[in-house]
Amino acid sequence: MSAPAENASSREAGAAEESRPSLAALLLDPSFWADWASVVGLVGLVIVFGIAQPVFLSVANLQALLLAAAILVVLSIGQTFVVATAGIDLSLAAAVMLGAIILGLVDAAGYGIFLACVLAVAATSAVGFFNGLLITAGRIPDFVVTLGTLSGVTGLGLILSGGEPIMVGSTFLLRLASGSFGPFGYPVWVAISAVLVAHIALYHTRFGVHLLATGGQVESASALGIRTNRVKIAAYTISGFCAGIAALLLVARIGSAEPQINTSLLLNSVAAVVLGGVSLFGGRASILGPAIGALMLTALVNGLTLLSVSAFYQPLAVGAIVVLAALIMRYQK
Questions:
Q1: DSSP character for 281?
Q2: Where are the transmembrane segments (predicted)?
Q3: What CATH number is attached to the domain comprising 304?
Q4: pLDDT above 70: percentage of residues in the chain
Q5: In whole angstroms, what is the distance from residue 173 CA to residue 176 CA?
Q6: Given its phi and psi angles, is residue 112 left (phi above 0), alpha (psi -120 to 50 degrees) or beta?
């Protein structure tokens, strides 16, 4: 190599070295914390709770924590697809309840657990499709539509069940809840599979490109030929589908279909999305971030429970973390 070429290479290497921020500058950069909020939060909670209560880091507790987080991870994935279009799905928890009740009713009628599972997921997917159709064709704000669906689906579930729990004693669901493969239980593998499939769909398919384009600027996306209405309907249908999978995991875990809406599932799914760095204005999303956010929220509740902190304070802690994360998100690059 000639001398001028060597000097040019040295100058380029020096410029690259200078362009790299120092560790101190990186830690003082708000955008760093915005991009890594869920990871930093999860690591911080593990360290704090591990020191305060060593049982937190026991194998048994970590396995229980992962099992508890599986449902929220699946729901946060569905919510991510909706939020990526600059929308929100407030009917998730009600859809989970409806799916659980339909599963219980079909199984109790003697049609078999597999048909019951299929119909449960189909029903929740139909709820999502209905939401997307009303939002796009009816030109009604997503907040209003999904809020109305929340109430309507809750009422439908109560009517179908008569307000009474439906016991589900399926061997298949019992194995799903208690079985394991390797170090993880089956619900954890379901959540991992959902993360992988959703990641591929979002980042390695045309649909994912169209989804983010629709959320980023719907008018520009339409001008480019993207059928934005179809994209939004698909996003809400995916959210409903994830609610159906979560319903299966929930019934398998508790052994019955409860006609009660669990609002914490809805609130925590939105919280996990915020913690995961997904822009509430659409156009920016990830799958791993919300999944880690769901783990973080589950670890927070688990750790507070082990420390014997009153359940009344746990929602307060979750709310404080979510608001803090939302403030940090303002500095996202």
A1: T
A2: 36-57, 64-84, 90-106, 113-137, 143-163, 184-202, 233-255, 261-281, 312-331
A3: 1.10.3470
A4: 87
A5: 5
A6: left
Q: Which of 307, 278, 305 is nearest to 290 (CA)?
A: 278
- For strand 166-167 and strand 180-181, is the pairing parallel, antiparallel, or unpaired? unpaired
Total domains, the chain: 1
State which residues form the domain around 278: 33-331
Residue in this structure with the two tokens 């410029």, named with its chain if needed: 15
Nearest to 240, CA basis, from 102, 38, 33 = 102
Residues 91 and 110: their CA atoms lie apart, in Å, by 29
Q: Nearest Cα to 215, choosing from 236, 196, 199, 191?
A: 236
Q: What angle do CA 69, 72, 73 make, to 5 degrees?
A: 80
**d(C-alpha 205, C-alpha 239), whole Å:** 18
Measured CA to CA, the distance from residue 296 to residue 274 in angstroms comes to: 12
In a domain, 316, yes or no: yes
Q: pLDDT digit string (tens) for 167-218?
A: 988 888 889 888 888 888 999 999 999 999 999 999 999 999 999 999 888 8
Tokens encoding 52: 């305060």
The pLDDT of residue 275 = 84
Cβ-proximal residues to 171 (8 Å cutoff; 6+ apart), any chain: none
182 half-sphere exposure, CB direction, 13 A CA radius:
4
User: Does pTM surpass 0.85?
Assistant: yes
Radius of gyration of the chain, Cα coordinates, nearest whole angstrom: 22
Residue 9 lies in a domain: no
Residue 180 dihedral angles phi and psi, to the nearest 5° = -150, 160
Q: What does the block give as tokens for 179?
A: 């079985």
- Model confidence at 145, pLDDT cuts 50, 70, 90, reads very high
In a domain, 2, yes or no: no
Q: How confident is the model at residue 39, as a pLDDT?
A: 80
End-to-end CA distance of the chain: 40
| Most confident residue range from 35-39, 46-50, 78-82, 301-305 | 78-82
Please calculate the CA angle 214-220-222 and round it to the nearest 5 degrees. Answer: 70
Contact indicator for 81, 238 with CB cutoff of 8 Å: yes
Token representation of residue 84: 């990526």
Query: Would you say residue 18 lies in a domain?
Result: no
